[in-house]
Amino acid sequence: MASQSHSAVVFNSSQVFKENIFDGKVLFCTGGGSGICRAMTDAVMRHGANATIVGRNVERLTLAAKELSDATGRMCIPAQADVRQPKQLQDAVKKTIEAFGKIDFVICGAAGNFLAPISGLSENAFRTVIEIDTLGTYHTIKATLPYVRASRGSYIHVSATLHYRATPYQVHVSAAKAAIDATSAVLAIEEGPHGVRSNVIAPGPIGGTEGMNRLSAKGTSTREYEASIPLGRMGSVKDCANAAVFLFSDAASFITAQILVVDGGSEHVRPLTLPYPQSVLDPASIKSFIKPKL
Ligand code: COA
């Protein structure tokens, strides 16, 4: 029997990178209470960093911070903040400085999403996603930059691939993520001379995440979907975490203003997630393609 291909295996960053590469470093991560950003925090902590995770749900954050501390042997603290509120982010930064004295790494990951056609999307709904994703990223940068500059640190912004081509029902997120990609690049060139790097991780289909569960087509079996991905499997949150470890590490010290797509090659062959044009001609029909809310 043929041995399992390398790409079919999900690796931990500790199998590839040294354990202590982030000793003494401090991570500030919005959206770190769950999903991809939690996995990124976990991996960065396993290489030695302490961390603050930021989010709206204090119960979820507190539990996640405890679990991350227990699992990694490093310290993770929760800081409740809505990224739409600059003052709350400033308080979260203050808490981080009081606890750890510095910030080296920032992950701008807090995001919101749902499926809705332009014709059925209210101004407030569009604004809400722009405010969480784009303004939330801006507020996070503004609150952390003096500290990241002081430590000649690094930013990672969690974006997406759906805006590379038009994706129906995702105008709000497409606009928000395109703006984040642009923001990261400008940050990189303005702050590069101060020793600060800024890059984007663009996850493709990552299994088990809230985004994937909420947004993937109901009738698509995982096996059928996985077969359509060039590397033959869904991504794991660990794949995104490994990318974050690489981008924060000194191995990426000459990499800035870049977008690292973590999607197994699927962007190049991606079919539309929803049936086209049926889903556009009959907006009500998308309900039957969306998995029940988690
Ligand atoms: N379709 C259309 N509009 C929607 C919607 C949907 N599924 N969900 C929310 N909206 C609209 C609301 O109707 C409201 O607009 P309105 O005032 O014109 O009615 C606007 O968006 C704000 O919604 P609200 O629920 O008040 O905002 P919120 O700040 O509490 O939450 C989200 C916004 C995006 C965070 C929320 O939709 C959510 O909880 N999503 C799930 C979590 C998530 O997105 N995780 C990330 C996965 S990638």
UniProtKB/TrEMBL annotation:
Protein name from the UniProt record: 2,4-dienoyl-CoA reductase [(3E)-enoyl-CoA-producing]
Record's catalysed reaction(s): a (2E,4E)-dienoyl-CoA + NADPH + H(+) = a 4,5-saturated-(3E)-enoyl-CoA + NADP(+); a (2E,4Z)-dienoyl-CoA + NADPH + H(+) = a 4,5-saturated-(3E)-enoyl-CoA + NADP(+)
Biological processes per GO annotation: fatty acid catabolic process
Organism: Bondarzewia mesenterica
Alphabetized Pfam families for the sequence: adh_short_C2
Documented EC number(s): 1.3.1.124
InterPro entries recorded: DECR2-like, NAD(P)-bd_dom_sf, SDR_fam
UniProt entry keywords in alphabetical sequence: NADP, Oxidoreductase
GO MF, one annotated term: 2,4-dienoyl-CoA reductase (NADPH) activity
Top-level division of the source organism's lineage: Eukaryota
Record's GO cellular component terms: peroxisome
